[in-house]
């Protein structure tokens, strides 16, 4: 697996608060829920913080289990899995799905909180990341939704202790992550 997500985790992991990403709900006359907050009223979702605090720890948890239980064909060897590993894989995939769902549902997307914009020499600036997100926020949300679905499928396979289904899902996770990173984070 590629370690590129570790680069996102490095800067300022501790002490960052993740902005809540939920629109207020109101009841319509028929009792249905309706969103009442406009995008201007919504709390922004700061992608870098979500990556640092939620996505990276979750994906590292997925890879920790998956890489250590890999068979010669690149799948998960059930003989290398025990109850604790299945539980850990399920937990990591569930956390990953939740974070990806929050990104997919965000009304206001910010690349980074103003206090977390520093990058190393040669890295893409957060201003450039913001430009890329602003150019195609629907695409960003779609990729986040796809990651959520993929992680949900992995969580379900882990809950079922299904190595045949879980193995390819773990193996494909790098590509799922990279699809968004190459488009919004490391675009050339």
| Helix and strand pattern | HEEEHHEHHH
Number of DSSP-assigned strands: 4
CATH-derived topology: Four Helix Bundle (Hemerythrin (Met), subunit A)
CATH class: Mainly Alpha
Global structural class? mainly alpha
Number of helices: 6
Give the mean pLDDT. 82
Question: β content, as a range?
Answer: 5-15%
Largest sheet report:
2 strands, antiparallel
Choose one word for the global shape: elongated
Instruction: Tell me what the CATH architecture is.
Output: Up-down Bundle
Q: Describe the strand arrangement of the main beta sheet, using strand numbers.
A: 1-2
Describe the structure.
This protein has helices at 4-9, 47-68, 83-105, 126-135, 137-159, 163-185; strands spanning 25-27, 33-35, 45-46, 109-110. A two-stranded antiparallel ribbon has the order 1-2. Strands 3-4 form a two-stranded parallel ribbon. With 188 residues, it is mainly alpha-helical. It is built from six helices and four strands.
Give a short synopsis of this structure:
The protein has 188 residues and is mainly α.
Question: Which keywords apply here?
Answer:
mainly alpha, elongated, 188 residues, Four Helix Bundle (Hemerythrin (Met), subunit A), 57% helix, two-stranded antiparallel sheet, 5% strand, disordered N terminus, 6 helices, two-stranded parallel sheet
Q: Helices, strands, pairings?
A:
Blueprint: H1 4-9, E1 25-27, E2 33-35, E3 45-46, H2 47-68, H3 83-105, E4 109-110, H4 126-135, H5 137-159, H6 163-185
Parallel strand pairs: 3-4
Antiparallel strand pairs: 1-2
Helix pairs in contact: 2-3, 2-6, 3-5, 5-6
């Amino acid at each position: 697996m590629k370690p590129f997500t570790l680069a996102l985790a490095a800067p300022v992991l501790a002490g960052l608060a993740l902005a809540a990403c939920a629109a207020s709900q109101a009841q319509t006359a028929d009792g249905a829920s309706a969103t009442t907050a406009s995008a201007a009223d919504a709390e922004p979702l700061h992608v870098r913080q979500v990556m640092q605090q939620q996505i990276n720890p979750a994906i590292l948890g997925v890879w920790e289990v998956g890489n250590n239980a890999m068979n010669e064909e690149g799948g998960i060897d059930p003989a290398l899995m025990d109850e604790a590993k299945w539980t850990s894989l399920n937990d990591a995939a569930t956390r990953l799905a939740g974070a990806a769902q929050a990104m997919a549902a965000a009304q206001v997307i910010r690349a980074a909180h103003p206090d977390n914009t520093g990058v190393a020499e040669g890295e893409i600036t957060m201003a450039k990341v913001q430009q890329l997100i602003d150019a195609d926020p629907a695409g960003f949300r779609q990729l986040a939704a796809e990651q959520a679905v993929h992680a949900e499928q992995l969580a379900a396979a882990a809950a079922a202790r299904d190595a045949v289904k879980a193995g390819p899902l773990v193996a494909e996770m790098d590509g799922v992550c990279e699809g968004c990173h190459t488009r919004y984070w490391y675009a050339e």
